[in-house]
Amino acid sequence: MDTRRMSPDRMRVLRGRAEAFLRSPLREAAATSVEDTRTLIQDLQLYQIELEMQNEELRAAQLALAEARDRYHALYDFAPVGYLTLDDAGTIEEANLTAASLLGIDRARLAGRALATFIAPAGQSAYTACWEAARKGRSRPNDVVEFQLDDRRHRQMRLELRRVPPGESPTVWRLILTDVTSWTRTVRGWMRTCSRRRSCRVCKCSRVVSRTISRTC
Prior knowledge:
Blueprint: H1 8-23, H2 26-31, H3 34-77, E1 82-87, E2 92-95, H4 97-102, H5 124-135, E3 144-148, E4 154-163, E5 172-179, H6 181-194, H7 201-214
Antiparallel strand pairs: 1-2, 1-5, 3-4, 4-5
């Protein structure tokens, strides 16, 4: 039997032949030669095999897509940094589990909320400047903004904001959040200690580090 794949045109012809055979009167069907009947049966069997192969390939493709989707979600949700998708007004559209944890709120409650509502009063100007720089296409991955969570806790976050993809409408933004609260506290502790020791080498180094902490976007 010919096991080559059947083209869609041949499948349509075969189906038409089978339907005509089934609709034909009994006498005409009986008059059909044995060879024609055998050929039709073989073609129908081939058609069935082809459909089974296509179904198997479809199931394999669906399984591969499901596995890839699960891997992507695992990497996205449990990444060590927060990922947020924002609209052009700064409203949260999507967030991974890490971002929800950093912001101290259930992920289901993030969608539709303006990210600006999480910014501390002291960080509002830095956050606004961050947007202005991003709209001009400037990348400043080392800038830190102070966040104030709903439970009044404060966190220092490094923001990386980019338009993705550029030039398309509606505009979509990707934001990466990195919690640097412990790091900034440690550096500020060095600075307080070194301020009492003018000759301390760490004090000189902390001046460089402090520029990173005090920078605004």
